[in-house]
Amino acid sequence: MDTHCLTLRSPDASVRPPLVAGDAVYIAAFDPGRLVVLDPLSGRELWRKSADGAFTTTPFMAGARIWASDRTGVLHAWDPRTRQRTAQLPARWSEEGRGQPAVESP
Question: Which phi and psi angles does 34 have, rounded to 5°?
């Protein structure tokens, strides 16, 4: 099995840890609020999506969807197969505005 190294560079450390799921690496960038999806072997960009606000959480997978929330208080979901947004829900945070959202999946 080959091992590959992915280096994420950000001048202000605003890149969240990536999610590796299936055949892709998902990166939710704080500024300017982009979900970037990379091929894990080549590092080539597969697709990207934008949000109205900067992403504030690490992307996570629940119910066959990729989820991430932004600083405007919206929790976004995408179908990784179709690359389409499947949900935009209000995110609930602690009083301090910290934490990682949880999604219940059937």
Answer: -125, 140
Residue 12: per-residue pLDDT = 53
| Ordered DSSP codes for the chain | ----------TTS-BPPPEEETTEEEEEETTTTEEEEE-TTT--EEEEEE-SS-B-S--EEETTEEEEEBTTSEEEEE-TTT--EEEEEE----TTS-S-------
Q: What is the pLDDT of residues 40-74, one digit of tens each?
A: 888 899 999 888 888 888 888 988 999 988 888 88
Any idea which residue has 């690359």 for tokens?
83
